[in-house]
Specification:
heterotrimer; A alpha+beta; B alpha+beta; C alpha+beta; B: alpha+beta; Ubiquitin-like (UB roll); DNA polymerase, domain 1; five-stranded mixed β-sheet; 33% helix; C: Aldehyde Oxidoreductase, domain 4; four-stranded mixed β-sheet
Chain lengths: 458, 165, 336
């Protein structure tokens, strides 16, 4: 167990506490070890239908025709739902906090934008019948050129894959989320060294052991109870009501016990269509992702490409940092416009850099839409920033701990997004990590504190 | 394709139930018998969440068709506790050692561990690692689970010294 | 044909709370007639332990034993609004809402106790073990069961409270990016020690040393769970994981855990960690979010350790054996 080092910030700790700060048994542990914990999938209802999606086999294509006759002939198949059944088909999850436009159809109308996109829903009395039915729906496509690379996507000559005519999210008239602080070009011109590197990540799956899903039960009251493993019940409920054209009070979501989320269960994909199916059939409906769907169709952590250009002085001070960041949002916005702003806000990392320029692009491509994941907007940026920091320290011949301390932000500094730093503790975690890993720092560095900044540098 | 009646001994009780051809042991446990402690994580044998003990051996129940198992003995997490208020040492060790987070892999972990301890009451760390190497946990980083299983093994040996190796 | 050893470090910060705010959460608390306290929420526990932490916060604020608090979540009919579990917001937002609700409930509880004991409520204290008594006179007091029964059946009062927490929404200046994105920042520094097999390109993470500053470790054993589990995910992200191994090409995507690579129980690193607490002024008992950030500093620390070990700088995640080997080949001047 971790040692809690109470000698740091001792006079900010306040009154001693009795329960908070102590180790008590997890209240859910007994349920977990006996198997009595109830996850959403542990409820079942007689007559429940299973929903299986017909999915796009193309990256980008027009849907010319859908023929579901053979699917409907499969014993047990009850109905096939298409976009025509969805009352308000276009949405974007974050419209609840003012993000627009509605850029995603619940079920696509005339085109698909990624491999695996759900096209129509087959409802059947058993999962096996639903799967067989889905395999027998014939979709005729006309392939369109697909774009997979973020920098390719934002070129003016690249055809737009989105209805709003651009392959990027528009931030108040700008093609990216901007941070402008000081003057990086001026600082680069006076810096001892200017260093630029490109970094790239690939999409990452949340891989919760429980896949995303829900079970919807029509109630005698005319309401619908939705057993769901969403990470955000009301976010889901509100989006569902808007999609389905239902009064909010017709919906009740039950959940709160989830077999791992990591951000993968904040999208609103399974609940609206399953509830629509329950509305149209009057029967309980289950829509659960297979592991294959969870891996390849549910939103991953976005791939990011980040170019960092730094101006640094021989004594170790970083005087300018220019970050050009591309978030590969995939085919639809989901939470990416938010995550891209969060990524911009995170720059230039926990360092006091007087000149910062950030262009953070939220880019659409023909791949599985990405969305939130643990460390959203930050995890990949931190990889890039800290590898860059290591490069700079080595180039200058400065110890990596000392290099962080030279540049660490302190209370009272102004961040690039113009918020004054308070509650800083980067100096202390670096000092302590150096100490316990056996690296002895010179006095100048052990005497540093997040509370103050030395008046004369060095 | 007609349904058939399958008989299993599940957690010490004789159970007869009707299944469709192609039904897995996992589906039979969860849907026909209402034993939901056994979790469904992938249905391809890649996550271990559905691990149960079949005739003394740990198996992934999503990979076993249930019809050929007629007459077999199956143990699930529901049968592990030694009494209504008395947990098995593995269960207690998982609680005390903070070896659960979301809890979805826990059933499979405990069943894999129970099968291990039945054949090897004094496992070394490596034995435990091998025993749970088919079980995915996305939350804990495994260390607490391994420690809890070793702790439970020690508790079991202390409680039943005559059976210790 | 050697295993090359190296060390690298990285330091990070991580924001607590939904970016830009505007994300309220509510909590309701009521006492049963027998002195238990029920917290009603619509907040989600993903395994991070929200149910436990909220009960600890309520017990602390109410001044009652942890065992007297039950958390009822999540049902949108019975639980008041919560924006959701994401953005390291649950402990911070919901925790603050629970404190507000618990303070209101405690005020009623203390008033009823004062009426029962015929003293001024300001003269009373709770012992945290189920009794309210006069300061300095533990014998002049009343137990929770008696108190709750009296409140309901004698005084006709409900020991209950309502809580909400919201950081007002910050708008971003589109030209400069001026904004107030976060409620607090947590901090971490990781030192990684690795070995690189110069023949196969495989990387073995031997040890991670982490120091975290998280405001307050609400439940140290559960903070430990986040640190260990997050570090494991960091190793996994750094070296193994992707759904698109040939990104931006879409081919060869894994479809289950047989193809989606992660470290197994036999691939763990030795771990040593310490926690620093600088309580956040706006955090519940100073808490900042720790759940999300724990994968972040291990990833670059491992990348930097790989460079230290073998001189290969991999700028792409994940750092697969193939990428390391291609880097080694380039250093040796041999064709990839």
């Amino acid at each position: 167990m971790e040692e809690i080092l109470t000698h740091f910030f001792a006079d900010e700790r306040g009154e001693p506490l009795k329960v908070v700060g102590t180790t008590v048994e997890r209240s859910d542990a007994r349920g977990h070890v006996t198997g009595r914990t109830q996850f959403y999938e542990d409820v079942s209802f007689p007559g429940m239908l299973h929903l299986k999606m017909v999915r796009s086999t193309r990256h980008h294509a027009l849907i010319k025709h859908i023929d579901a006759r053979d699917a409907l002939a499969v014993p047990g198949v009850v109905r096939v739902l298409t976009h025509k059944d969805v009352p308000h088909n276009w949405y974007t999850i974050l419209r609840l906090i003012g993000v627009e436009p509605n850029d995603e159809p619940v079920l696509p109308e005339d085109r698909v934008l990624f491999l695996g996109e759900q096209i129509c829903a087959v409802l059947a009395e058993t999962l096996a019948a639903a799967e067989e039915g889905a395999s027998k729906v014939v979709v005729e496509y006309e392939d369109l050129p697909a774009v997979f690379d973020v920098e390719e996507a934002v070129k003016p000559e690249t055809p737009a894959i989105k209805p709003h005519g651009k392959n990027y999210f528009v931030y108040e008239g700008h093609h990216c989320r901007r941070i402008r602080f000081g003057d990086v070009e001026e600082a680069f011109s006076t810096a001892d060294h200017v260093v630029e590197h490109r970094y790239q990540s690939a999409p990452i799956e949340h891989a919760p052991t429980e896949t995303t899903g829900c079970i919807v039960k029509p109630e005698g009251s005319g309401r619908f109870t939705v057993y769901s493993n969403t990470q955000a019940l009301f976010f889901t409920l509100d989006n569902m009501a808007l999609i389905l054209g239902l009064p909010f009070g017709k919906l009740r979501l039950v959940g709160g016990t989830v077999g791992g989320g990591f951000g993968g269960k904040v999208d609103v994909i399974v609940e609206p269509i399953a509830t629509l199916a329950a509305m149209l059939t009057g029967k309980p409906v289950k829509y659960a992702y297979s592991r294959h769907e969870e891996m390849q169709v549910s939103s991953p952590r976005a791939a990011e490409r980040i170019i960092i250009k730094d101006g640094v002085m021989a004594d170790g001070r970083i005087v300018a940092r220019k970050v050009t960041l591309y978030v590969d949002a995939g085919a639809y916005s989901r939470h990416s416009p938010y995550g891209t702003t969060k990524a911009a806000a995170h720059m230039p990392g926990p360092y006091a850099i007087p000149n910062v320029h950030v262009d953070a692009h939220c880019v659409y491509t023909n791949r599985t839409p990405s969305s939130a994941m643990r460390g959203f907007g930050v995890t990949i940026g931190d990889f890039d920033l800290e590898v860059q920091m290591d490069r700079l320290a080595r180039m200058l011949g400065i110890d990596p701990f000392e290099f962080r301390l030279i540049n660490a932000y302190r209370d009272g500094d102004m961040k690039a997004h113009r918020k004054i730093v308070e509650g800083a503790a980067l100096v202390e975690v670096v000092q302590e990590a150096a100490r316990i890993s056996g690296r002895t720092l010179p006095d100048r560095f052990t005497q540093m504190s997040s509370l103050t900044r030395e008046t004369a540098h060095g | 394709m007609r349904p058939s009646i399958v008989s299993l001994e599940v957690n010490g009780s004789h159970r007869d139930f009707l299944v469709q051809p192609g039904t897995t042991l996992l589906a039979a446990l969860r849907e026909a018998l209402g034993l939901t402690a056994t979790r469904k994580g992938c249905e391809t044998g890649s996550c271990g969440a559905c691990t149960v003990i079949l005739d003394g051996e740990p198996v992934m129940s999503c990979l076993c068709l249930v019809e050929p198992l007629d007459g077999a003995r199956v143990e699930t997490l529901e049968g592990v506790a030694t009494g209504p208020d008395e947990l098995h040492p593995l269960q207690q060790a998982f609680i005390d050692g903070f070896a659960t987070q979301c809890g979805f892999c826990t059933a499979g972990m405990i069943m894999a561990a129970k099968a291990l301890l039945a054949r090897n009451p004094s496992p070394c760390r490596e034995d435990v690692i091998v025993a749970i190497s088919g079980n995915v946990c996305r939350c804990t980083g495994y260390a607490a689970i391994i420690d809890a299983i070793l702790e439970a093994a020690a508790d079991l040996r202390a409680a039943r010294p005559s059976r210790a190796a | 044909m050697a295993r090359l050893r190296g060390r690298g470090m990285a330091s990070v910060n991580y924001p607590t709370g939904m970016n830009l705010g505007g994300d309220p959460s509510q909590a309701l608390i009521h006492a049963t007639t027998t002195g238990s306290f029920v917290i009603s929420l619509s907040s989600v526990d993903l395994g991070q332990g929200l149910k436990t932490i909220m009960a600890q916060i309520a017990a602390e604020t109410l001044g009652v034993p942890y065992g007297n608090v039950m958390v009822d979540t999540a049902d949108t009919d019975t639980g008041p609004h919560c924006m959701g579990t994401f953005a390291s917001r649950a402990t911070h937002r919901v925790g603050n809402a629970v404190i507000m609700a618990a303070k209101e409930a405690r005020e009623v509880m203390m008033q009823v106790a004062a009426d029962e004991l015929e003293v001024d409520p300001d003269d009373l204290t709770s012992d945290g073990e189920g009794r309210i008594h006069v300061v300095g006179s533990p014998e002049k007091g009343i137990g929770l069961v008696e108190l709750a029964l009296a409140a309901h059946f004698k005084h006709g009062r409900t020991i209950s409270g309502r809580g909400i927490y919201m950081k007002p929404k910050s708008d971003v200046d589109p030209e400069t990016g001026r904004m107030d994105p976060d409620s607090a920042q947590a901090h971490a520094c990781t030192v990684a020690e690795v070995e690189v097999d110069d023949e196969t390109g495989e990387v073995f993470v031997l040890k991670l040393t982490n120091v975290y500053e998280i405001g307050r470790a609400m439940n140290p054993a559960m903070a430990h769970q986040q640190i260990v589990g997050g570090a494991w995910m960091g190793i996994s992200h750094a070296l193994y994981e992707t759904t698109e191994p040939y990104y931006p090409d879409r081919s060869h995507g894994p479809t289950d855990f047989a193809g989606y690579l992660m470290p197994g129980p036999g691939d763990l690193a030795e771990m040593r960690s310490a926690i620093i607490e600088r309580p956040a002024k706006n955090g519940p008992y100073g808490a900042k979010g720790i759940g999300e950030m724990t994968a972040n500093s291990p990833i670059p620390a491992i990348a930097n350790a790989i460079f230290d070990a073998c001189g290969v700088r991999v700028d792409e995640m994940p750092i697969t054996p193939e990428r390391v080997l291609r880097g080694l080949d380039a250093l040796r001047g041999t064709p990839a």
